[in-house]
Specification:
It contains 9 helices and 17 strands. It has about 300 residues and is of the alpha/beta class. About 30% of the residues are buried.
Length: about 300
């Protein structure tokens, strides 16, 4: 199962968690697998039944103030119970003072105790975003991922069918490359997939006969994009006269990826067909459909009306 360590949280710069380690440094290799966090709330009063295991536990002003208001013996009892639970790490927000016994228990048990300067609500928002992105289900797909007219289009097909060559033509038409060959796909939330390039092949495009070229250096920063939501899929297939290729656009096919169904357009490839122009056209048509304009459906409706009128 994919996870991230507490140490990775400490070293993060992208999400601005502003964390420092206070105690329990022996436990920094502990792994976080759950995208959900918990603000202790009632648990800080000793009601351990409300504790959710295997989560990052956050203590804000309410929890710390309550613990500091108790007699020393009561505070120790609650803290001892807290450390018996299955906790990944504790985080104190607002740079609040931490009870000494809390620090002692963290060191004794090797359970990380961290502190952040952020107010609780801001910290929760940021760490939730980090966990959702870092722990999102992911996979890799062989293909090319492009930003065409603001649409994230994943181009797939057998090796040698012309995916990279089509991508090059699209780049020369002013569109942007995200990644060629290996697309790293991550599930974000319940219904979105985002694609990006593995670090090693970022900005690179392989063209048979020429080799690997750096698109950013050749065409400038505006020709590439780091990551984007995948809106739909284009599959390049070999032209076959016997195949019943879609002509009207009435049939809606899907491409399933990480449990999400994406719209799929199959484009037959043959000598003389301008595949890149067709891909761009498919993207323009996708945008229209998103706006509620479906040309194929409108045509079918007109035909049905004409047929009905003729029968009268």
């Amino acid at each position: 199962m994919k996870g991230i360590t507490v140490k990775e949280l400490l070293e993060d710069k992208e999400y601005g968690l502003e964390l420092t380690a206070v105690a329990g440094l022996k436990g920094l290799s502990r792994k976080i697998y759950n995208t959900k966090i918990q603000k202790l709330g009632l648990v800080a009063t000793g009601k351990m039944v409300y504790m959710h295991p295997h989560r990052i536990q956050i203590l804000g002003n309410t929890e710390i103030s309550y613990l500091l208001s108790l007699k020393d013996e009561e505070t120790r009892k609650i803290i001892k119970e807290l450390f018996k639970q299955e906790v990944v790490c504790f985080v104190i927000t607002r740079n609040l003072d931490i009870p000494d016994y809390f620090i002692q228990e963290a060191d004794a048990r090797g359970l990380p105790l961290l502190k952040s300067k952020l107010v609780t609500s801001t910290f929760i928002e940021r760490i939730t975003k980090l966990l959702e992105e870092k722990l999102a289900p992911s996979t890799t797909v062989h293909g090319v991922f492009m930003d065409v007219l603001g649409v994230g289009v994943l181009i797939i097909g057998r090796p040698g069918i012309g995916k990279s060559e089509s991508a090059l033509e699209l780049i020369m038409r002013g569109h942007r490359l995200i990644v060629d060959d290996v697309v790293y796909v991550k599930k974000v939330g319940a219904i979105e997939l985002h694609g990006e390039a593995p670090e090693m092949i970022k900005n690179l495009l392989e063209i048979r006969g020429v080799g690997i070229v750096d698109i950013r250096r050749l065409f400038g920063a505006s020709s590439i994009c780091d990551k984007k939501k995948i809106d739909f899929v284009v599959e390049l297939i070999d032209w076959d006269e016997k195949r019943d290729n879609e002509r009207l656009g009435m049939k809606e096919e899907k491409y399933r990826l990480l449990g999400i169904d994406l719209p799929l357009v199959k484009i037959p490839v043959s000598l003389g067909r301008n595949v890149s122009a067709i891909i761009e056209l498919a993207c323009r048509n996708f945008v229209l459909k998103q706006q509620g304009i479906d040309t194929a459906s409108e045509l079918e409706e007109k035909i049905l009306k004409t047929t009905a009128a003729g029968k009268k």
